[in-house]
Amino acid sequence: MAPETNLIKTGIINGKRHTASIAHMGNDVYIALIVSEDPGPRGGYGRVSRTFDNELDAIAGILEAWTELEDKLK
Known about the structure:
This protein is α+β, with helices and mostly antiparallel strands. It has 1 helix and 4 strands; from the N terminus they run E-E-E-E-H.
C-alpha cells in the first residue's frame, strides 16, 4: 500500500521550483520532504528530508526546513 502523501508548499527558491510534502509511512512515522527541480547541465533533483513521529511536527519541521533552505540558497 502506498503511503498517504500531502502537499504542503510549492515555490521558487534561487530560481528553481521546489515542492514540500509529507508522507505518512504508518506506525507513527512521517517523512517530510523538499524536492528541488534542477534544470542545470547535470539535470536531476536535489532533496531535503526529515523523519517525524507525528503529522503536526512533520508540517512544522518541513516549513522550518523550507525557511532554512531559502536562507541558505540566497
